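Dear colleagues,

For the upcoming journal club I promised to circulate an example of a predicted protein-ligand complex. I picked one with S-adenosyl-L-homocysteine because it came up in last month's discussion. The inputs are reproduced below in full, followed by the predicted structure.
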Amino acid sequence: MEPPVTALPWPDRGVRTDRPGPADQPGPAAPPGPAGQPGQATRPRTVGPTDQAGRTTRPRPSGQAGRTGQPGPPGLTVRPGFSARRPAPPRHLADLDPAGRRAAAAELGQPQFRADQLSRHYFGRLTEDPAQMTDLPAASRAELVKALLPGLLTAQREQQADQGTTVKTLWRAADGAYLESVLMRYPGRVTMCVSSQAGCGMACPFCATGQAGLTRNLSTAEIVEQVVAGARALAAGRVAGGPGRVSNVVFMGMGEPLANYNRVIAAVRRLTDPVPAGLGMSQRQITVSTVGLVPAMRKLAAEELSVTLAVSLHAPDDELRDELVPVNLRWKVAEVLGAAWDYAAATGRRVSIEYALIRDVNDQAWRAEALGELLAGRLAHVNLIPLNPTPGSKWTASRPADQDTFVARLAAAGVPVTVRDTRGREIDGACGQLAAANADGQPG
Ligand code: SAH
């Protein structure tokens, strides 16, 4: 399918910022309200149509069947294999804060301190193997592990690149949803790129994840488990370069993290709370990347977290951004950047402006100058990402000379700029390439 280039993909229907939680978990708070009314309860709104289960589906040319050939309502693609009522992911210790875990232990008729012991195994020793939990009575280990450490994700496939220092894992959740994470080891740091949703409803036409639509939000524990799995592999010396630790997490895998707001924030807390409450990572080493859901960005600024905010801008002008990041139909460049500067002011953190360079689409020198004008003097840094072409797209990365000019114009405007390396490109593990093809190469 050709991505829309000049025509707007659909009329402005607004954007959904969250969806109801699984029945057995505390539901998320009301989705952030529209601009100017952060946190106020509103009806969930959607970008593009949704199917019966409330999943956002990607529009297709009228009457055309989806990628899998499944017929759907005219103009819609409904992901196959998912019933309207899908089971919630099993409850897991990492979904709960320490008080919730103690309450869960009490519900099982166990002393509350068992919750801390179990947390120490999961977050501290990175184990969920009852045999290793010798501080727990043998008789109750299996029951505790079954109730609070259920298996959530099964590795379906692992691919390596960069001499084993980049590892992409395709995970299958209990309900059959697919998601991916990527571990990237650099000298002195290891970054886990994690998914916040199975699929994505934001439909950016240059992004592979955006092509298939949203399957569902991930639970907090499903997000955390991606990091814990990476930490385990590193601790066990299974990643090239010897034993190590996860130092950074970027929410740049599948999904729009701020559209799964409550679970993502809870995951950030689990990652950064000290052991045994969490993994004990530094908030400053966590990056949340967004298409620009303005009310959620404002809510994030009020959380008093020191996480880095990345904003996927990709164009300095609304005309082009409306096409590249369709949520721009709802929140314009000026509003998105306004929220970004407020985030910087509230947290003192430099905002990262993500800009995928697409040949002859957004890489003109005049656009670099326009971007420079928007960002000059701001607490911001531009991360240029050479476009990773996705299957079927007619777009490709910029010519080296155009990229150099773009960098030079930004630098001339006094804007700090770097070009991101394209780790994992050949295993489709680079930015925007996560499409969760399963072992047969079919979309998950
Ligand atoms: N939904 C979040 C996270 C997406 S992935 C967001 O949009 O920010 C992280 C980054 O990769 C985003 O900036 C996204 O726009 C970018 N990206 C997506 N597809 C890409 C591609 N094919 N090539 C390069 N960057 C891409």
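Two points we might discuss: The domain at 153-427 is CATH 3.20.20.70 (TIM Barrel). The first strand starts at residue 153 and ends at 161.

See you all on Thursday,
B. R.
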